[in-house]
Automatic annotation (TrEMBL):
<dbReference type="Pfam" id="PF01557">
    <property type="entry name" value="FAA_hydrolase"/>
</dbReference>
<dbReference type="InterPro" id="IPR011234">
    <property type="entry name" value="Fumarylacetoacetase-like_C"/>
</dbReference>
<dbReference type="GO" id="GO:0044281">
    <property type="term" value="P:small molecule metabolic process"/>
</dbReference>
<dbReference type="GO" id="GO:0046872">
    <property type="term" value="F:metal ion binding"/>
</dbReference>
<dbReference type="InterPro" id="IPR036663">
    <property type="entry name" value="Fumarylacetoacetase_C_sf"/>
</dbReference>
<keyword id="KW-0413">Isomerase</keyword>
<dbReference type="GO" id="GO:0016853">
    <property type="term" value="F:isomerase activity"/>
</dbReference>
<keyword id="KW-0479">Metal-binding</keyword>
<feature type="domain" description="Fumarylacetoacetase-like C-terminal">
    <location>
        <begin position="90"/>
        <end position="316"/>
    </location>
</feature>
<comment type="similarity">
    <text>Belongs to the FAH family.</text>
</comment>
<protein>
    <submittedName>
        <fullName>5-carboxymethyl-2-hydroxymuconate isomerase</fullName>
    </submittedName>
</protein>
<dbReference type="InterPro" id="IPR051121">
    <property type="entry name" value="FAH"/>
</dbReference>
Length: 336
């Protein structure tokens, strides 16, 4: 595994981007004199990604860099690890794994004539694959939190659910790009958990107006991200990535990106036709089967949620009781 990019702070410092290799960390500012730009923050680094990408790739692949990190790097445990991205926009692709769409359909169907219904549902999924397009919603960027921050559960959050996903971080402006070259616009990949309050997806007071993604997805802390950003050059085949999630040690989700109805490149191409993607934007690419609504089990205070993607690391979030309510404005955008 080559070095990855981690967003860390120490003592009272502001978060800063660094290279991480074998649990050793060194600030990217160390290489500023060698042409790296925007090394003081992850936002600035990604803003200059098109300029930095070649030099960063050389650094990460250099055995000299790896030796320097091994000899002079500081142990990761000395730092606080923050979300590896501070996006201006967060996009979430809904209903994008065959396994999850099929599971939800069968759950709603109540198991009547399951074999017949299964074939019908699978056929409808493949028809959508051929004739349809991704379904994407916006999620507030202030929902982004760190990979080890607490997840505050408020009174009334009876249907707070998990969704482990592969996060795609854009590295340069993408507008009307073709799927064949869409992955060229990716800076890297990370783990995300798209926390969703199920009973707020449809407004009870306005049921005919459809989905309410603000109430159901955008509260502060509802997108634990990281632990780090794995640059695109270290991910040979994104479709081979495997997201998983454990609740209190029990495996709940275990998927494969190859099960996506619309692959990552197709999602980027679709989005770029409707909105100009900018460096640092984050795309949450869908979740596999095994969300809480399937089990009839939602998140409560005291629960431990571990979410990961093989090759991208794993996060660990503890659900915290917010008995007296919680201030929902995050000045830092990085959890509380």
């Amino acid at each position: 595994m080559l070095p990855v990019i981690v967003n860390v702070s120490i003592a009272a410092s502001d978060p800063f981007p660094a290279l991480l290799f074998n649990d050793r960390v060194m600030a990217l500012a160390h290489w500023r004199s060698e042409g790296l730009r925007g090394t003081s923050s992850i936002v600035e680094l990604l803003d200059d990604w098109a300029v930095n990408v070649e030099r960063l790739q050389q650094l990460c692949r250099s055995t000299a860099t790896q030796a320097l990190l091994a000899e002079q790097g500081v142990e990761l445990s000395a730092f606080r690890v923050h979300a590896p991205v501070s996006p201006r926009q967060v996009y979430c692709t809904i209903g994008n794994y065959r396994s999850q769409v099929l599971q939800a359909a069968l759950d709603a169907d109540g198991g009547v004539n399951e074999p017949v219904r299964r074939e019908a549902f699978l056929a409808s999924i493949e028809k959508r694959r051929k004739e349809g397009a991704p379904y994407v919603c916006l999620k507030g960027p202030a929902s982004v939190s760190g990979p080890f921050d607490g997840l505050h559960v408020e009174r009334g959050d009876a249907t707070l659910d998990w969704e482990v996903e592969i996060g795609v971080v854009i590295g340069r402006t993408a507008c009307n790009v073709e799927a064949a070259c869409a992955l060229d616009y990716v800076a890297g990949y990370c783990v995300v958990n798209d926390i969703t309050l199920r009973d707020r997806i449809i407004r009870q007071d306005l049921p005919t107006l459809g989905t309410d993604w603000l109430q159901s997805k955008s509260r502060g802390g509802w997108l634990p991200s990281g632990p780090w950003l794995v640059p695109a050059w270290s991910v040979e085949d994104p479709s081979a990535l495997r997201p998983w999630l454990r609740l209190n040690g029990e495996l709940m989700q275990d998927g494969a990106a190859s099960d996506m109805i619309f692959g990552i490149a197709e999602q980027i191409a679709y989005l770029s036709r409707h909105a100009a993607l900018r460096a640092g934007d984050l795309i949450c690419t869908g979740t596999p089967a095994g969300i809480g609504s399937h089990y009839g089990r939602y998140l409560h205070a005291g629960d431990v949620v571990e979410a990961g993607v093989a090759g991208l690391g794993a996060q660990r979030v503890v659900c915290v009781d917010s008995t007296n309510g919680r201030r929902r404005c995050h000045e830092s955008g990085d959890g509380e």
